[in-house]
Design brief:
Helix content is about 35%, strand content about 25%. By secondary structure, the protein is an alpha/beta fold. Helix 1 links the parallel strand 1 and strand 2.
Amino acid sequence: MSNNFKKILISAHYYTQDIVLTGKILRKLAKCMLDILKITAIYVVPSYFGTFEDKYKTQKYYEEEIYGVKVVRIRVLEFSKTNKKSIVKNIVSYFFGVMGMTFKVGK
């Protein structure tokens, strides 16, 4: 990939391999833009049901490449879908994680 490519940052809660349709749509959009843009995507670790696998409990950020897109996954707080307070804490931890990572990947 050429260094002359413009960069784009995608930030959303879900991405490919999650079961939510939004993640699948964003993955397809990113894949289509790879010829003209250098893409970095920031998402949470897979946690649709409120918990995540043990492999995602040791670091704050996880980097990988999926279909040519640099993906940074953020570990957020686990939550219960029946507890509004835990949902809000999850969203707030996501927000601050994304803000912190946005400045790091922009360098």
